[in-house]
Design brief:
rod-shaped, DNA-binding transcription factor activity, LysR-type_TF_proteobact-type, alpha/beta, D-Maltodextrin-Binding Protein, domain 2, 14 strands, Arc Repressor Mutant, subunit A, 297 residues, single chain, 3-stranded antiparallel β-sheet
């Protein structure tokens, strides 16, 4: 159905209910002549007379009554739905879809959701766990989470975590067999546990930085995983050095199950940011979630 047809049908309904072109024109905010032209256009399109007009009265014909009986509940239903959509702008309700990495989902998103959702039962959240970068507009996500804030100009970025650090770790038994590396070049002498990137399929080059000097090291070893948990497990088993987020191994470092090396080459970097299109009109639910996630440290 064309937009013009909907306009014509609505105009007919108002005229039939008001039984007056004068009152209907005032209600619709148009002129009587324009309204008369709209009704004639509708009648010509349908090929039937819908209204009988006298100097004192306007009334639906039999065909008009049948059409009105069909239109009235449909238009009332549309009106009710529009009203409910208007309420959603004020009431925290609706579904929010976010694409995120597993680490961000566990360490940042889940703690906020665990606090927020019990208070707002009409808010629904769907997390899509994906280590690659997604096109949130094309894939119909409301927002995405990524490290740093270097985003496209049409995106808004909200910091949702503090700065973060990576850690190169190995077990005490592994480091008893080999001397700890002192510089990034020493990693060539070590068995390192690689991370296979799901997005590109390549192996992740370890990104290290010290005193403003940045290096990317391609490491080698017996093992490669596309899962950080397995990297940590292999490192604890003494099978090599792993390069992971610091908080993944905080407890293992504190207990001595793992030992950190090249700590001075693991500089802090900008943490997680929630990003979404700047042209988006945030719903009450989305605004509430952004506020709950916003980092205030």
């Amino acid at each position: 159905m064309q937009r013009e047809e909907l306009v014509d049908l609505n105009a007919f309904t108002v005229v039939a209910e008001e039984k007056s072109f004068t009152r209907a024109a005032a209600k619709l905010g148009t002129s009587q002549s324009s309204l008369s032209h709209t009704i004639r256009r509708l009648e010509a399109r349908l090929g039937v007379r819908l209204l009988t007009r006298t100097t004192r009265n306007v009334a639906p014909t039999e065909a008009g009554e049948r059409l009105l009986a069909t239109l009235r509940p449909a238009l009332e239903s549309i009106g009710a739905e529009l009203a409910s959509l208007s309420e959603l702008r004020e009431k925290p309700a609706g579904t929010i879809r976010i694409t995120t990495s597993e680490h961000a989902a566990v360490t940042v998103l889940w703690p906020a959701l665990e606090r927020l959702l019990p208070q707002y039962p009409d808010i629904h959240v769907e997390l899509s766990i994906d280590s690659g970068l997604r096109d949130i507009v094309a894939d119909r996500f409301d927002a995405g989470v990524r490290l740093g804030e270097a985003l496209a100009k049409d995106m808004i970025a909200v910091r949702i975590s503090p700065d973060m650090r990576m850690a190169i770790v190995g077990s005490p038994t592994y480091l008893d067999r080999r001397p700890a590396p002192k510089t990034p070049s020493d990693l060539a002498e070590h068995s390192c546990i690689n991370l296979r990137l799901l997005s590109s399929g390549g192996l992740y080059a370890w990104e290290l930085e010290k005193d403003g000097r940045e290096v990317r090291v391609r490491v080698d070893g017996q093992l490669a995983f596309n899962n950080v948990g397995m990297i940590v497990r292999a490192a604890k088993a003494g099978l090599g050095l792993g390069f992971v987020m610091e908080d993944h191994v905080a407890e293992d470092l504190a207990s001595g199950r793992l030992v950190r090396v090249l700590g001075d080459w693991c500089a802090p970097f900008s943490g997680y940011h929630l990003y979404y299109p700047s042209r988006r009109q945030p719903s009450a639910a989305f605004s509430l979630l952004v506020d709950a996630l916003r980092y205030r440290g």
